[in-house]
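Give me structure tokens for this 508-residue protein.
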Amino acid sequence: MKWSFPRWCFNPWLHSCLIFLLPILLASTIYPWLTAYSIEKRFNRDFDEITLTFANGVDDFKQKNIERAFAKLSFTCNEDDIALLNSQSLSPAIVRFIQLELADGKKCSNIGPPVNYHLDRSRSLFFGTQQVDIATTVAATDRARSLAYAFHLGEQKLVVLTNSSVYNETLSNLCHGCYQLLISYQGLSPMVRGTENLDENHSIIKKSRYIKTLDVTLTLKAGDDLYWQEAYRIGVVLFIAALIAAFLAVIFYWNWQSARVSLGMLLQKGMSRKEFIPYYQPIIDCRSGEVVGQEMLVRWRRFDGVLVQPNQFIPYAEDSGLILPITDLLLDQVYRDLAQLKGWVSINIVAQHLESGLLSQWFSLNRDPMVKRIAFELTERKPITQFELALAEIKAVLPLCHDFKLDDFGTGFGGFSYLQRLGINSIKIDKMFIDTIGTKDLKGAVLDAIIAFGHESNMEMIAEGVETQEQVDYLAAKGVYQHQGYFYSKPLPLKELLHFYLQVSHVR
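Here you go.
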């Protein structure tokens, strides 16, 4: 008993639901991976921005700016000195205050009166050739601690205290509540910027970078807020993309379904109008040039005169089962043409023909002795699933027809298995192998193996797709004498085939 799928499996509405869900399921599958990738990418990008901001802040105090400032200062803390300290070149956003400290103990700052500050630890650092003292301020917490620079010119000193809010704003602008930055100079107390208390229940990323020119290590840490922001952003983007893909997929499916239904209706109308007609491609014995038979190839000439190519309707006809009634119509037409045809004529069949019993039914209705000249070429595009039925059909039909041939031998599902199990003793060598003649294609060895097998098994062999004299000579030398291909003739309607017969007889 043949097993079949339940009818509900073929419900197009069920297919639509499954197709709609597929992009959403795919999006949910890649969501965790894409979120992790996006977090990592954003973290690295933001760390680059933070590193650049830190380096640019230090650049504001490089040797050239300080030397220019020292050259302009009168070292008297007069109004001009205070104005210079308050200028953009010496008081950028990174500066909390800058103070000039004279040898006599007098002090002045960019805000006017001197500022009292308390330093914790200090060490020397070189900006180019200029030695600078750096220190951290005394503070109760790492977050409250600031960095100070001291530039010396003799006994005069220029002290700069950095503005921690710049780094806090930078971190907040990049991702509010996401980051905490640890600034560590060798020998100095550490400083922390950004979010004071990171939520680290779900996710934490921590990376460090050492800036050799400044002898400082920056350690950036991200907590849950970065994860949730990226997870939300990726989730929204993926969901929208999945919805769009789902709707487009369903639209495409229904368009495809409509096209299939439309094609099915056109095929059925074509059968009722007898638009499917046989073309015949001659098969020649290369030794004598005689036509020994022909392969019938279906063509669809629509009522409007348009000739539809076989690859545009044969696959659908096979999938939908319409290939069976189409073959039935063609058998009737071939039967009517037999009286004018030379030799045998082969008709392509698939597994469905054998499993359905169509051929034996047709022969039971057509007892004319001429039908003995009809042969069948079993294609291997789809496998035979019910060998018992297929074998019984071949045994029933074989005494009534010319023979069965295995088409496109070596390219499909069955191959040697079909020959053995179905008792077929005629093979057609596919054009794919014939094309290797005269080339270095590795499939040339397969061609020779097929020919050797055919001889050893006493198989009838027909070479398909013969197009050149070189191929003719090679095949003849190998003992393959029956040829089919454009070297001899293209597929022809009956009227042109009869004219071809006359040409061949005149040449002979």
